[in-house]
TrEMBL record:
This is Alpha/beta hydrolase. GO terms for molecular function: hydrolase activity. Residues 39-269 form the AB hydrolase-1 domain. InterPro entries: AB_hydrolase, AB_hydrolase_1, AB_hydrolase_fold. It comes from Glycomyces tritici. Keywords: Hydrolase.
C-alpha cells in the first residue's frame, strides 16, 4: 500500500469531490477505510459540508467509510434547493446510486433526519442502519413552527454578532454557552483551505418552507422501518421538540433512544465525548 492509498483519517483534511446525477453536480467528501457499507451523513438546515462536527465524523470514520454531501442547491452543489423533503430524498437517492452504492448506513441531524425518513419510505431496503438526531417524524407536532423559532434566533444572533447556532442548538446557560462556542470553533475554525461555498439565503428559505410542509404532511408508516435505529437529542430542543424523538422511538420498532440532559437541539454536539463512541459502536455492529 503506497502513501496515496492511505485513507483520510480526519474530516478537516478530506478533499472535496464531485459526482453528477440527475443533472446536478453534487459535492461530497469521504474519509475512513473504503469497503463495506458506507455511512452517508445527511446535514441540517442551512448547513454545508463545513458544518459537520469533526469530533463525531472522525470517530465514526475510524472504522467505516464516511461520506458527507451537499443536497441540490446547497453549498457548492449545483441547481436550486427543492421545495419538498421528498424531492430532497430523491436527490439523495440519485447521489447515492451515482456513487455506485445499493446499501448505505445513514447518520442524520435535524432536516437531514427528515430527508432520511422520506428516503427510507421510498426505498425500504437501501438503509442498513439509521441514526436520527435532533429530528422528528413527518406530521410531527410543532415541526411547522421551526421557521418562526429560526428567524427569531437569527435575529438574536445578528444583534449580538454571534453564530445563530449558538442560540438554536444550545441552552443559554453557562454550560450551553461554553459548548456552543467550542462547537462553532470546531466547525468553522478548523478547516481553512478548500472550504465549501456558503448557503444562499433563498435556498435556506426554501428549506424552511419544505420543513413547514413536512410538519403538516401525512405521517409515514414508521412501523415499516425495519433497520436498527439509534435516536438521540437533548432534553430541551427548541427547534424540533424533544418529545418528537420519543415519538420516533415509540413508532420505530426496536429503536434505541438517548436523551442528553440540560441540552438543546445540539445535544449530541454538546455531549460529543459521550455520543461519538455510542454512534460509532452502533454503526459498527
Amino acid at each position: 500500500m503506497n502513501m496515496h492509498d492511505k485513507p483520510v483519517a480526519s474530516y478537516i483534511e478530506a478533499p472535496t469531490n464531485t459526482v453528477t446525477a440527475n443533472g446536478v453536480t453534487f459535492v461530497y467528501r469521504e474519509l475512513g477505510p473504503k469497503g463495506g457499507i458506507p455511512v452517508v451523513f445527511f446535514v441540517h438546515l442551512a448547513a454545508t459540508l463545513d458544518y459537520w462536527d469533526p469530533r463525531i465524523v472522525d470517530a465514526i470514520a475510524k472504522d467505516r467509510h464516511v461520506i458527507t454531501f451537499d443536497q441540490r442547491g446547497v453549498g457548492a452543489s449545483t441547481g436550486e434547493v427543492p421545495d419538498s423533503i421528498e424531492a430532497m430524498a430523491d436527490d439523495a437517492y440519485a447521489f447515492i446510486t451515482a456513487l455506485g452504492f445499493d446499501q448505505i448506513n445513514v447518520f442524520s441531524f435535524s432536516l437531514g433526519g427528515m430527508i432520511a425518513q422520506a428516503l427510507i419510505a421510498e426505498h425500504p431496503d437501501l438503509v442498513r442502519r439509521l441514526v436520527l438526531t435532533g429530528t422528528g417524524p413527518k406530521g410531527g407536532k410543532d415541526i411547522d413552527k421551526v421557521a418562526g423559532v429560526t428567524y427569531l434566533d437569527i435575529l438574536r444572533a445578528t444583534l449580538t454578532r454571534s453564530d445563530p447556532r449558538e442560540f438554536l442548538f444550545f441552552n443559554r446557560d453557562a454550560a450551553g454557552k461554553l459548548a456552543a462556542k467550542a462547537y462553532v470553533e470546531r466547525t468553522t475554525g478548523a478547516r481553512t483551505e478548500g472550504r465549501d461555498a456558503p448557503m444562499k439565503t433563498k435556498g435556506f428559505q426554501t428549506q424552511l418552507k419544505a420543513i413547514k410542509q413536512y410538519g403538516r404532511g401525512e405521517p409515514h408508516d414508521l412501523s415499516k422501518f425495519t433497520q436498527p435505529t439509534l435516536i438521540a437529542n437533548g432534553d430541551h430542543d427548541r427547534m424540533v421538540p424533544s418529545v418528537l424523538s420519543e415519538d420516533l422511538h415509540r413508532r420505530i420498532s426496536g429503536s434505541e433512544l438517548v436523551i442528553y440532559p440540560n441540552s438543546g437541539h445540539g445535544g449530541i454536539f454538546q455531549y460529543h465525548q459521550d455520543f461519538a463512541p455510542v454512534a460509532a459502536e452502533f454503526l459498527n455492529r
